[in-house]
Amino acid sequence: MILSALTSTKYVFITARGWTNVYIRSIGCFKDKPRRAAGSMVANLRGLKYAVRDCARQARKRGYRLFAVQNGGECFMGPRAKITYKKYGPSKRCRGGKGGPWANNVYIIVVKGMCQDFVRIILSTLYGFAGLTFNSEFNVRYLRTCQ
């Protein structure tokens, strides 16, 4: 499977061949602690070249859209991860898109047509608020990042 990646100012967009209209987008790097911020570890993919893609597959298989990769390929997810992933704050310890020691690279799986959910998570992360409406110019500007 071949991956293509584009980098924008804030996010990495990855498309895996065979995944029509499915993208993996990086939300950022966040701290973790023993009381996990992004659910539980479902797979240890350390050392694998495509650990992020394989973790995304695990997330899709389990019905999750948000997942995290830590410490070189440990794959985390859970039912509350979309709410709790940022609870310890941002981190600068992530390396190569695969997290770091006690640091999660957090990703969201975006299926074309699910843009508003993605924007809601990003705005919540960047500005700390949720329950947004998509009427204002401010929000429309972020909706364009999904296309």
Topology of this protein?
Blueprint: E1 3-7, E2 12-16, E3 22-31, E4 40-44, H1 51-62, E5 66-70, E6 74-77, H2 81-84, E7 103-111, H3 115-127, H4 137-143
Antiparallel strand pairs: 1-2, 2-3, 3-7, 4-6, 5-6, 5-7
Question: Could you explain how this protein is built, in words?
Answer:
It is a single chain. With about 150 residues, the chain is α+β, with helices and mostly antiparallel strands. It has one domain (about 30-145). It contains four helices and seven strands; from the N terminus they run ββββαββαβαα. It has helices at about 50-60, 80-85, 115-125, 135-145, and strands spanning about 5, 10-15, 20-30, 40-45, 65-70, 75, 105-110. Strand 2 and strand 3 (about 20-30) form a beta hairpin. It is globular, with a radius of gyration of 14 Å. The model is unreliable at about 1-15 and about 130-145 (pLDDT under 50).
Q: How many helices does DSSP assign?
A: 4
Beta fraction: 25-35%
Count of all domains: 1
Number of E-type strands: 7
Jot down its keywords.
disordered N terminus, single chain, disordered C terminus, 29% strand, seven-stranded antiparallel sheet, 147 residues, alpha+beta, 7 strands
Quick gist of this model?
This protein has 147 residues and is of the alpha+beta class. It contains four helices and seven strands; from the N terminus they run E-E-E-E-H-E-E-H-E-H-H. It has one domain (28-146).
